[in-house]
What we know:
This protein is α+β, with helices and mostly antiparallel strands. 40% of the residues lie in helices and 33% in strands.
Amino acid sequence: MKPEIRSQKSEVRNQKLEIRNQSLSSVLCLLSSVFCHLFSVVCLLVMFLGGAGCEQMRGLPEFTTQTDNDFKRLSVYSHFAPEKISIMPLTEFINPGGTRQANMNLYVSLLDSFGSQIKSPCVFRFELYQRVQRSADPMGKRVIIWPDIDLTDAVENDEYWRDFLRAYEFNLPFESAANQSYILQVTCLCPTGRRLSDEFALKLTK
């Protein structure tokens, strides 16, 4: 075989090998690009789903816990709210100098569900009625109703509070004839909307 023919065959063989290598390299590059793209998409989906799941799991227990805490807190405080009002026996008329003008020294205590005397923001209302003797319904005509005393302000509330008695003290002006019997009614208007009341029999003597 001539050297020229041998050289041409060898050159053709080398060209075929080069073409095959280039084709294989192109295929590998294409597969690598597709794999990388798919891997990126999968990673993004995992991050999105995982983040959403974590966010949902974080939010739900926090909301439930806050609601439960608020409910328990309100439930506990309700036991210490006023449940009863009581006019103390120290309440009396004071008539200085035998005049028609008298004052009523009034002591009122608020009690919680445990029977303890407490302070509480509220509004007090005082009404005085004639007392009907020997009657099934001793409360007669209303004589006077004083202006409400608002103790929802902390400073105002403390001015009427007597800590040594665990009660509130009020001084109400009143003018009446001598030797009259009355029924005093005290109503406590609580911030919760509850109305607590008590009655107390009094007699003005001169």
